Amino acid sequence: MNETEILKRYWGFDSFRPLQDEIIRSVLDGNDTLALMPTGGGKSLCFQVPALVKDGICIVVSPLVALMKDQVENLKGRGINAVAIYAGMGKREIDILLDNCIYGKIKFLYLSPERLLSDLVRERISYMDVNLIAVDEAHCVSQWGYDFRPPYLLISALREVVPEAPVLALTATATAYVREDIVVKLAFKDPKIFVQSFARSNLSYVVAADEDKHRKLLSIAANVKGSGLVYVRNRRETSEIALFLQRNGIAADFYHAGVERETRFKRQQEWKQGKIRIMVATNAFGMGIDKADVRFVVHMDLPESLEAYYQEAGRAGRDGKRAYGVLLANRSDQMALKARYSDSFPSIEEIKKVYHNLGNYFQLAYGAGEGLNLNFDLADYCKRFGIGVMKAMSALKFLEREGYLTLSENVFLPSRLLFLVSHEDVYRFQIENAGYDRLLKTILRAYGGTFEQYAKIQEADLARKVAVSFNEVVKQLNFLQEQGLLSYLPQTDQPQLQFVRPRTDLMHLDIDVKYVKLRKKILTDQIDAVLTYTGSAICRSKQLLAYFDEPDAEKCGVCDVCLAEKKAEEPDLILDKIDFEIITLLQSEAYELQDLVPALKSGTEPEKLSRIGELLDAGKIKTDGKNYYL
After folding, report:
1. What's the burial of 230, exposed, middle or buried (CB within 10 Å: 0-12/13-18/19+)?
2. Could you tell me if 527 and 520 are in contact, meaning their C-beta atoms sit under 8 angstroms apart?
3. Which residues share a beta bridge with 135?
4. What is the pLDDT averaged over residues 453-474?
5. At 309, is the secondary structure helix, strand, or coil?
6. Same domain, yes or no: 162 and 37
7. Is the pTM of this model over 0.70?
8. Which residues of 302-328 are buried (b: 16+ CB within 10 A; e: fewer)?
9. Contacts with 183 (C-beta within 8 Å, 6 or more apart), sequence order
10. CB environment 11-30: b (16+ within 10 A), e (fewer)
């Protein structure tokens, strides 16, 4: 099937959106391709369609585990075989999935960039028939980008493993510096670059300097009908503002990574379905969520970069109808932004201290820990060692770049189970250990395929069927694992931290001082760009487009700056219209004042009388005491 037939068969569309067709054609021609498309522009189809046209498997590298999992489920729902491998999975589990990619009919293998560190993964990929490498959120590969992820630098090594496969890099936001860096870091050969304009004609950008932000938010909710999204800086504010909106009669709820997974999913669905009108969230919310009818996105705090702001505000108005991106930024916010990020930037000594404390936190001896995957509670770590979360996160990124560790986002991994022995051995164990017979029978009946691959299980469901407590099921599963009968992986909802190298003493811990200084400069430049954007009386859209290297854009006419300019111009425009109408009428005949004034369509009566008097004084019209004429 060709690309149009694939689109119709699996997605039900008759034609592609602007630029999708050209990008897909470039990929099918075997070109290394960089595609810049705004949020909601349909980036995923640009690799999914050509991968289905060609024989072989497509490897997709993405930093967002939640988005990877959503896309895998979405593809499966369309009858397309896809799997994902990310931090927190066991070695045997990964081994089985990779085998399926080599010998099975898997079309898409989603990988988090941290997985590329594994020799096992790279070696097994060399046996796969890879037709395309797709790099989602490709700005993460660039040190000039706002969201640089050190593990992304490993993607070029993947190219050495499968040198014939073209690379498609996709992002919604990238300046000229970042584009050039992506092409270099991904070792593009004769790159083809496609850039869709960053202009969003239906999106009205507004910067409001109200001191009372809560009152302004209520005003927005009252005056703009439809669904809304409110971004705040921390988890505490999500619940506070959601409760404030509820007290004022607005259906609102909150979302952040610390909310229990089932509750997060339920709230997300209710917001998508319109049962919740306004979602108040940290920036953990929104990536990959396809809701086209969001009418307003409000930022209660200044963002750390214009790239982040453009992506988040761009979640409004994906249906092409009028929508608003509102940034609430008063003078104290602007002063605090620079101070906050300066205070949070770690020194070399602080980076080393964060690493040393990690070893103590996990009770690792020097020389131990290589390849160890651990659940990591960042908040608990910061509390224990008295360090700010932002400073700790920055330090961890530097340690990632130097190859000491990797840190993934929050990952929900359900409980999984795999039998390690044959059916006959399980049967023999049941006969010899009657106390475990009922649990084993229930597992074998309830979950298929547990001898071939890990199956997702629910301990609570097993407990109900076996008529024992939840804790008793867990205890029995752990015993069966100790006996070597099965592998049992309990569920987790924590970020995953992996020590790539054995724990090193501080004397041998090398941190690139020049690179730390460079990152500080990049961060300072990004903050300065945000402050310029909020403080300049220049069309907001023009400012954003200039930042993304579209310097010749027209004024949007719908942002707060453009509307203020229009309002200021209106009095002069009305007077000009009155002048034009007076001269036009008097060219054909003379008028008495009592007839001339009502014949004029523009302006109020005082404005009309004022202009007639001024034109008379200037000698542009005349009167004989009764009639007015030229």
Report:
1. buried
2. no
3. 61, 169
4. 90
5. helix
6. yes
7. yes
8. bbbbbbbbbbbbbbbbbeeebbbbbbb
9. 34, 191, 193
10. eeeeebeebbbebbebbbee
244-248, 335-339, 437-441, 504-508 — which is least confidently predicted? 335-339
**Does a structural domain hold residue 69?**
yes
Domain containing 465 equals 416-490
The encoded tokens of residue 440 equal 């084993």
| Residue 261 predicted with pLDDT over 80 | no
The domain boundary residue, chosen from 195, 216, 241:
195
CATH of the domain at 89: 3.40.50.300
Report pLDDT digits (tens) over 466-501: 999 999 999 999 999 999 999 898 887 677 888 989
Which element (helix H / strand E) includes 607?
Answer: helix 605-617
- Structure tokens, 280: 């108040």
Query: Which of 55, 63, 48, 59 shows the shortest CA–CA distance to 16?
Result: 48
C-alpha 260/C-alpha 237 separation (Å) is 17
Same domain, 190 and 213: no
State pLDDT tens for residues 76-101: 999 999 999 987 777 888 889 999 99
pLDDT at 68: 86
φ, ψ dihedrals at 106, nearest 5°: -70, 135
* Distance from C-alpha of 253 to C-alpha of 339, rounded to nearest angstrom: 31
Closest by Cα among 85, 87, 126, 128 to 104? 128
Residue 505, both tokens: 């003493």
Whether 136 has a pLDDT exceeding 80, the answer reads yes
DSSP H or E segment with residue 194: strand 192-195
- Identify the bridge partners of residue 374 per DSSP, sorted by sequence position: 497
List the beta bridge partners of residue 488.
Answer: 417
For the chain, the domain total comes to 5
What's the CATH code of the domain at 598? Answer: 1.10.10
Average pLDDT along the chain: 89
Co-location of 138 and 179 in the same domain: yes
Domain match, 360 and 500 both: yes
